[in-house]
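Side project, low priority. Logging it here so it doesn't get lost.
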Amino acid sequence: MPATESSEQQQKPHAVAAGVSMRDLLASCAAANTISTPPRLPDPEPAQTPAGHREAA
């Protein structure tokens, strides 16, 4: 391996992947999760209460 290739590889930053910040990456994942999750089903209606009101004993 020539000396020029090894010095070029050492100068490249390794922490940045394709110029995307961690905040942007997490925001895109949250947006994708929100879009791909189906909406919640409505809560079931509560059971009908009896027409007559019963007094406590």
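Brief comment: Residues 22-36 form the longest helix (15 residues).
Revisit when time allows.
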